[in-house]
Amino acid sequence: MLVNMLKAAKEATYELMSMRSDIKDRALSAVADKLDKNRELIKAENAKDIAYANECGLSKAMIDRLILDDKRIDAMIQAVNEIKAQTDPVGKVVEGYRRPNGLYITKVKVPLGVVGIIFESRPNVTIDAAALCLKSGNVSVLRGGKEAINSNVCLGKLMKEALKETGLPEAAVNIIEDTDRAVVMEMLKAKDYIDIMVPRGGDSLIKFCTEHSLIPLVKHDAGICHVFIDEFADMEMAVNIAVNAKCQRVGVCNTMETLLIHDAVAAKILPMLEKAYAEYSVELRGCENTQKIIACKPATEEDWSTEYLDFILSVKIVKSVDEAIAHINKYSSQHSESIVTENYSNSEKFLDRVDSAAVYVNASTRWTDGGEFGLGAEIGISTQKLHCRGPMGADDLTTTKYRIYGSGQIR
């Protein structure tokens, strides 16, 4: 069954790669319309997944990732419309030049081809990923987790209906309904049909894909994110950022997991933070110096490299911006980090030396998101360095090829 789907997906790439922008945009408009008109169906199918998640005893944070209510359906529609409004990256000329022999050489953006996406939980990824692929002329093959299977299948069928109604090949969007883990292995070996794999999920999924894939990966790795409160920080701003970065939504990858505080301000700000975090029932785990200032559990070595995705926060007091940078570069998953400071030299040092995909000055790590970065949505947040890094939008779903114009030149 899967091989037939992949063959059809590969065939669809040849039609989609040269599809006019207005036709792709018309299909995206149809997708947004389908989502709006089928709200009750989407919510009914999603309710089946929520019921299953409760039966399995999934955490509140994980269940929150699954929910598709009207607000999140609105967000999916908005994402599709924002993706549609973007400039089509396909055909963009990166550079063009004429050689002494008269050859005119252009380097242009082209689709990657078939994009395989393996993801867990959040069913909105089905829409975001498929819409980004469609905008960039790629075919998507999506395999979500069993906890969201009803939602994913429903969203996939609505997208296929939209494609059919606008004259695009239905094989441009594919939902794998088989939740058996063996299907993931089959995808990872399908190098004749899939051009790139994007795994989005927990550490075990990423490791599994890294170890077994015969296809290039763009990894959406763990989110061990940090905020560093410098000695020159505005205290009120620092508390607001630190609370938002941890508590605004704990079950997502751009949530802060470790808070670093300069020892010059620790005695002043830690009691303020203790009070603020108590309102969210955040469990604090601190280093020895932190424990001398506030009541908290002792932090272990393992805490510094743990992605909690829960109301748990590790806290460490450091003596300088250099020590903060060293700690981040040692323990971070290279996702998102922030410094709160009014000192320009320290902010620039932090920006220059922290080796992560998104580095902030005086802002919450929660902003690392394709939609918030103006990409409409994201197919993932790449924490590696090839071929893209950070939120991955339509432009990042392209590669390049050379188009050469001659007038009879031979070598």
Strand arrangement across the biggest beta sheet? 10-9-11-8-7-12-13
What percentage of residues falls in helices of 4 or more residues? 40-55%
| Number of continuous helical runs | 14
Distance between the termini: 48 Å
Structural class: alpha/beta
- Specify the biggest β-sheet: 7 strands, parallel
- Mean pLDDT over all positions: 95
SSE order in H/E notation? HHHHHEEEHEHEHEHEHEHEHEEHEHEEEE
Gross morphology is globular
Question: How many strand elements?
Answer: 16
Radius of gyration: 23 Å
Low-pLDDT runs: none
Structural write-up:
This protein is an alpha/beta fold. The protein has helices at 2-16, 21-37, 39-55, 60-66, 70-85, 124-135, 149-165, 181-189, 203-212, 235-247, 263-278, 288-293, 321-331, 344-353; strands spanning 93-98, 104-111, 114-119, 139-143, 173-175, 196-200, 225-229, 256-262, 283-286, 297-298, 312-318, 336-340, 358-361, 381-382, 390-391, 398-405. Strands 10-9-11-8-7-12-13 form a seven-stranded parallel β-sheet, sandwiched between helices. 46% of the residues are buried. The mean pLDDT is 95.
